[in-house]
Amino acid sequence: MKIIDMHCDALFKMQVAKRDSLYHKPLLNFTDAKELDTNFQRLQAGGVKVQFFAIFLHPELPSDEKWQHALEQVDLFHTEIIGKNPQMRHIASWQDINELKDDEIGAVLTLEGAEPVGNDLAKLRHLFRLGVLSVGLTWNYANLCADGAGEPRGAGLTLFGKDVVRANNENRIFTDVSHLSEKSFWDVLELADFPFASHSNARALCNHARNLTDEQARAMFRRKAMINIVFFPSFINEESHTATISDLIRHIDHFCSLGGVEHIGFGSDFDGIKFYTDNMKNAGDYQKLINELQKHYTETEVEGFAYRNFLAHLPI
Hints:
Layout: E1 3-5, H1 10-20, H2 40-46, E2 48-55, H3 66-82, E3 88-90, E4 105-112, H4 121-130, E5 132-136, H5 159-170, E6 174-176, H6 182-191, E7 195-196, H7 214-222, E8 227-229, H8 245-257, E9 264-266, H9 286-293, H10 299-312
Parallel strand pairs: 1-2, 2-4, 3-4, 4-5, 5-6, 6-7, 8-9
Helix pairs in contact: 1-3
């Protein structure tokens, strides 16, 4: 079964390796590097039809280096992922997904935290031109756009953050709520035309600030916004580094009970996690999850989780 995965951190991992290559360590070959959970061969093996690739910056990176680091990751996306793998096709606009050939895998560029933009909308527009189709306003901490899920203050969007959401709306770009504080979440839901959660689970089952409350989930579903389930055990089982596929499915069950059966997808967080759900070590293992879901849901529902729900939510 085809898969659309809304979040991975392969670009960050590839950038770290590239910078390490200055000290005579090897570059990571996207085609088959075993260090990459989402290398090309594993995407093929897992049936992944579209993979979203996040631009993510280490939170301790000095502010004056963030824009350059973001551009380096964009360059890796275009040269190492698209440029060296003919079957990887850049999804530069949402219509491109519907034009993928049978042997092609779509690659979508996203921004996980607007830190590289600073307070400059021109930089944001430049990222749109380079292919970014989803923007998360912040990672876990505060920046010039918003407070994140890990910021104790718990404030919402700034005036500039609201300008970013409006720019997303004008360009039919997703505004990602996965890392936001609760106040920022509600500010986004009030303003964004295309909200979604790239990788979040149910806080009712795992009380982690990165997960969504039932009130937030119901509000997303009323807006017909997607919540994409994340595979990181710490977001599945509270204070745990372990999880089973059954544990993961509990979060899908819970969101379905809130009315989300047509608004659920996958955002694995592969290459951004240190611990894994059992038997789900990389993108090549995706069909194990599909096989288990087919024991609990109809074929139509499983196809929805895997890819059809997202196709029904394209902002086109």
